[in-house]
Queue: 3 jobs
Job 1
Amino acid sequence: MNSKLNIGIIGAGRIGKVHAETIAFRLPEAHPASITDINPEAAAAVAARCGIAHVAASSAQILDDPDIDAVLICSSTDTHAGLIVDAARAGKHIFCEKPIAHSLERIDQALEAVDKAGVKLQIGFNRRFDANFARVRAAVAGGEIGAPQLLHIISRDPAPPPASYVKVSGGMFLDMTIHDFDMARFLIGSEVEEIYTAAGVMVDPKIGAAGDVDTAVITLRFANGVIGTIDNSRKAVYGYDQRAEVLGSASSSATANCYPNQAVVSTAESVRRDLPLNFFMDRYTESFVNELRAFVDAVRLDKPTPVTGIDGRIPVVMALAARKSHDERRPVRLAEISSLAHA
Ligand SMILES: NC(=O)c1ccc[n+]([C@@H]2O[C@H](COP(=O)([O-])OP(=O)(O)OC[C@H]3O[C@@H](n4cnc5c(N)ncnc54)[C@H](O)[C@@H]3O)[C@@H](O)[C@H]2O)c1
């Protein structure tokens, strides 16, 4: 493909705006042709900011447009699976935000439609495209650490979401830990077979009242023998805490938090530095650009996408297993939830 990839954007909320800006200002091979949102003012505001010439009345109008090559699905999670089916039937290549859906049945319907249409699908697990995590993965994949043995992921938010969001989010495991489940598979390069969750409500009783948890340690047993932990909190008072370490037979590879600056202030009383970058918009800015660059390249050069539909499905199986383990207070094998391939 020599011409620019014409992209339609569905959903102009927080993440839709980030992706629209990337397509408009950072990726010369792509063109933001059209945008839509059920809130037309949101779509119009992003269109004006990013120079998008066309505000579509609906997602159907974008999917009917023969000039659109690919769509970015950035709307609320409950719309993703249906929009994937519609977009695949319309022959559009698809980038879809995580998670595909909360139910495996809906995910399987979406993946079946993608297979049938032969279009490309990439899921928005952006952290794989963060330079720090990518380097830890390269150290594991390239043998620098020898045989991997232990994995630790620390993933804590700076502040909990409102209880109203908690109710529609699917819960912490499907909404927040889902990124860590993807990161665990990505870093180790093997599938998790069994999960044990110890979780509770330590941050906000309203989250508990909504039926969710806000604090967890999740133990992972991988098929290749590696043992992992994910440490989650909805509130770390010092900000967004995003770290990982893989210990291997030859060395360990770790990545620490990112800061707005490297300055250290040393006084007679203490040695201080500023807090880490506060949340995902700041911490993962470049990863959002890199993931869309990879998607645009995959479509234009007819390559496989780096985060497939199955990569979108397996973390949902892991999240359902984590919740079951918490509810039943026992280790849960992923096979109890589903096979890892889609039906
Ligand atoms: N990868 C990441 O780090 C990351 C970060 C934030 C959000 N997300 C995901 O992105 C999705 C959106 O999250 P958000 O934070 O931007 O939410 P948001 O509420 O800010 O935006 C969602 C937008 O979608 C619109 N919308 C809903 N249904 C629609 C439809 N049928 N057609 C068109 N527009 C529709 C809403 O009006 C809203 O403007 C969620 O699935 C979320 O999990 C991913």
Job 2
Amino acid sequence: MVASEKVVWVTGASSGIGKSLTKQFYANNISILATARNIEKLKELESQLKAKFPTSNSNLIVAKCNVTNLSEIDSLFDNIVDVSKISCLINNAGITSFKKINDNSIDEVNSIIQTNLIGSIYTIKKILPSLISKNEGMIINILSVVTKKVFLNSGIYTASKLGLMGFLNVLREEVRRNNIRIVNVIPGATETSIWSSDMLNKYSDRMMKPDDIAKIIVDYFMNQSSPVIEEIVLRPIGGDL
Ligand SMILES: NC(=O)c1ccc[n+]([C@@H]2O[C@H](COP(=O)([O-])OP(=O)(O)OC[C@H]3O[C@@H](n4cnc5c(N)ncnc54)[C@H](OP(=O)(O)O)[C@@H]3O)[C@@H](O)[C@H]2O)c1
């Protein structure tokens, strides 16, 4: 990796929207650090991309990183990538449970909040000092339409995404003077493995496709202008499920 190279860090890159983002950044010659817990899936994606786009100038690094585990995040930047290379973080890793609050176990509560909220705060805290010292950068966060209206069976997920949104609202104002852009992407139903196979069988024709969501984000990243689009809301043409 050359000294001046700028790298986009995509969390949750092993499937769904994160996998589509990795593919499209790679196809557009943008260097990527693609992380998730499942390193086998990431390595398979790396081989597929290298075979499909042999002339890409993108430097793709795949690495295991559980966003809930601070020592895995530290080790990523101690051993694999210099944190100063990261110019953009995409907080995409996320989970849900599609249950009523009364039916959620405490373990489910902890893992949803740890992954979606605390994990995103950990990743931001890791790269923020470097972005501030460079006086530039972008943090893109994949939130959800649950931040816009009430969806049943999504109580803990909603707490995690609205909590993150509140944190990001404060962060945005704190880092404006450091030329750091905080961008929230707010998708509605998208056809990925976050949904059960029953829901996918019933509704996939009404869902957006992860490649379409990724294309909008990659186009946005590649065409930055002076005004900041701070929020991108994406819904299926037929509306919410
Ligand atoms: N699909 C939708 O309808 C929809 C709508 C609105 C928002 N979103 C948001 O979009 C984001 C991506 O979800 P998706 O729909 O693409 O679902 P997905 O296909 O299930 O992908 C989720 C990704 O997150 C990773 N992940 C989960 N826990 C992690 C952890 N602790 N550390 C690191 N990575 C972790 C998973 O990889 P590993 O298992 O390999 O770690 C996977 O790559 C999520 O934040 C989700 O809330 C989705």
Job 3
Amino acid sequence: MESLEGKRGLPRIKPPFPATHGLYNKPTVVNNIETLANLPYIVGRGPEWFASIGSPPKSTGTRVFCVSGHVKQPGNYEVPMGVTFRELIYEHAGGMRSDKPLKAFIPGGASAPFLTPSHLDVKLDFESVAAAGSMLGSGGVTVMEEGTDMVWAALRLMEFFYHESCGKCSPCREGSSWLVQTMRRIVAKRGQMQDLETLVDLCKNIEGRTVCAFGDASVAPIMSTLKHWRPEYVTLIQEAESANLIKLEPAGVRH
Ligand code: SF4
């Protein structure tokens, strides 16, 4: 019988997975169009042919990567799995749009932790990107140039996750709200150093404690920007603290 969650379209606890209990409680194939588009070629030319492309043993074949952001030629590029981010960004997507160097990139959609220029030679395969601390995810590669405000970027992504949370489980529903509030305070230069601990605490109380993977995904932008660009958070908070000190200082002793 279909669950209440299924009727409402809310995520349900897995297992069982759709492969055994999917639509009408029957075994169901759930694949995106990119995967299905490969099937005629695999059937026609054989699985060995497909497996010979890419980065065996696990990341074989080609993949469509959607490159967006501060590159000269944003677009969808189908490349063999295993090419490097450097090749994708600088050869296929034409490189950076201006003379500003690369600052950051998201390797696989909003759910994937940010990577840095030191990861440019990481291969675009599942294993290599995971070893670098992120994931290939949807294949959406967002490129950001030097000068991008990483705290603001993390806030924009967090606002997306807050908006998209279905609200079924408390850590995701309440946690995403608190994360957005805290991030907005920091970006508006009203934050405190304590907020950084609060952010990490909130993320840890969401990750691994939700019904679906959305909760885990939602903490990636904040956790990865705190890991790679923590000084940007600290600068915003220090500016907030300085502004508060000036306000508190009696008019007569200002210099
Ligand atoms: S993690 Fe978020 S999106 Fe997933 S079921 Fe819980 S509230 Fe809904």
